[in-house]
Specification:
InterPro entries: Cyt_c-like_dom, Cyt_c-like_dom_sf, Cytochrome_c-type_DH
Organism: Acetobacter malorum DSM 14337
Number of helices: 8
Protein name: Cytochrome c-552 class I
Largest sheet: 2 strands, antiparallel
Helix content: 40-55%
Keywords: Heme, Iron, Metal-binding, Signal
């Protein structure tokens, strides 16, 4: 587990120049996902048991409410640390902050992962949604509290 975590951290650190250089205009969410997210969450948002939650058929449901959309933007911008329950399974992974990505890129990737579900029409994110979330950075404990409040109001799948 420790070896895997160190390999993951090394991969994230190696990707830092890629993250910092992606401040171009609105991008294709799939490309942003494949560059920055798929190493952990796997192709098509399939996840990795016990480490990284499945995104497919979950993110669209979380993004169905304004609180859910804000939470998802906060997670991508600030990262998520510590144990969580997702889709009926326990995860103890580490998600780094992707705040080095542009607001357009984060909106594109969140829209892409929301499109992997069966909600029709799929929820969409705008750069303004991300900009609003970016205006209030959050600490890990605040993200966990936001997740708990969201889960109490609208259970997170």
């Amino acid at each position: 587990m420790i070896k895997h975590g160190l390999r993951l951290l090394a991969g994230v650190l190696a990707a830092a120049p890629v993250l910092a250089g992606s401040a171009h205009a609105a991008s294709d969410g799939l490309t942003v996902y494949n560059t920055n997210c798929s190493v952990c969450h796997q192709a098509g948002g399939a996840g990795m048991p016990g480490q990284f939650p499945v995104l497919k058929n979950r993110i669209d449901k979380i993004a169905a409410t304004p609180e859910g959309k804000k939470y998802l933007a906060d997670v991508v911008l600030n990262g998520l640390h510590g144990p969580i329950q997702a889709g009926g399974a326990a995860y103890a992974g580490f998600m780094p902050s992707l705040k080095a990505l542009s607001d357009d890129d984060i909106a594109a990737v969140l829209t892409y992962v929301a499109s992997l579900g069966d909600t029709s029409p799929a929820p969409t994110f705008t750069a303004d949604d991300v900009k609003a979330a970016r205006a209030t950075p959050k600490k890990g404990s605040e993200i966990q509290a936001e997740r708990n409040a969201l889960n109490a109001a609208h259970p997170i799948p």
